[in-house]
Write a structure and sequence with these properties.
mainly alpha, two-stranded antiparallel sheet
């Protein structure tokens, strides 16, 4: 796709700027996209969601992309403030004031933001993303579960039940991560044992819950263990929609 190749080539020269507001300052990275490709323009509307997801994937440094962004942004932001005060005060005020400022500047250089979150804690931004992503997946999983409950009432064999579920949810299930694993059984293999002797299976809706399936599918988005995701999601309740 030529248009997409042109976009990738334009990444070499993004524009980076800081936009101050009353209560916050925004560092803006702008990539120019001059594309007349209708498909790319349509897909571009879904790009923010994909970008949110890529922020929490591991970069080459083994840190998340968000963590790398945050580290560089903090350094540039701190540097901008120090440079501004340096230009305002250096060689423009009384010598005593300048020596005071040099000492104060050293203190600022040594000051570091508190970035350690403690064991098991997530950054606020990641927690917010995790909540939104879980809510989105959970809503679709509830529909899959309702379809399974409906199918077992009119079908007998696992194959017939699965086929009936597919016919009921095929119009929206593609919005789920790795939705094919729901029917292959791989998603249910990711649900950790709840003490039941029989493993959860799609064609037996009494053996699993929408929340369990949502957590299992979320593991394809973020590489955490099932119990770890359960812990992080414990305080997050799905949004009730009318």
């Amino acid at each position: 796709m030529t248009a997409l190749k042109n976009i990738m080539q334009s990444l070499r020269e993004p524009r980076i700027s800081l936009k101050p507001n009353k209560h916050n300052d925004s560092i803006v990275i702008t990539f120019h996209r001059d594309s007349k490709d209708e498909l790319l323009n349509r897909l571009g509307k879904s790009l923010p969601h994909a970008f949110d997801e890529i922020l929490w994937t591991k970069a080459k440094s083994q840190n998340s992309t968000w963590s790398e962004f945050a580290k560089v942004s903090r350094a540039a932001y701190r540097g901008a403030w120090l440079m501004l005060f340096d230009r305002l005060y250096r060689n423009r005020v009384h010598t005593d004031v300048e020596s005071w400022f040099e000492a104060y500047k050293r203190d600022l250089d040594e000051a570091r933001p508190e970035t350690r979150l403690g064991r098991g804690r997530l950054p606020t931004a990641q927690r917010e993303w995790l909540g939104k992503e879980f809510d989105r997946i959970f809503r679709h999983c509830k529909r899959v579960h309702r379809a399974a409950q409906k199918a077992v009432q009119s079908s007998n064999t696992p194959t017939d039940i699965r086929r009936a579920i597919w016919e009921e949810v095929s119009d929206t299930i593609q919005y789920l991560p790795k939705y094919g694993t729901i029917f292959s059984g791989e998603a249910f293999d990711k649900i950790e044992s709840t003490g039941r002797s029989k493993p959860p299976q799609l064609h037996e809706p009494s053996s699993w819950t929408p929340r369990q399936l949502a957590i299992a599918l979320l593991r394809f988005r973020i590489k955490y263990k099932y119990q770890t995701l359960q812990k992080h999601l414990a305080g997050i309740r799905p949004v009730r929609r009318k």
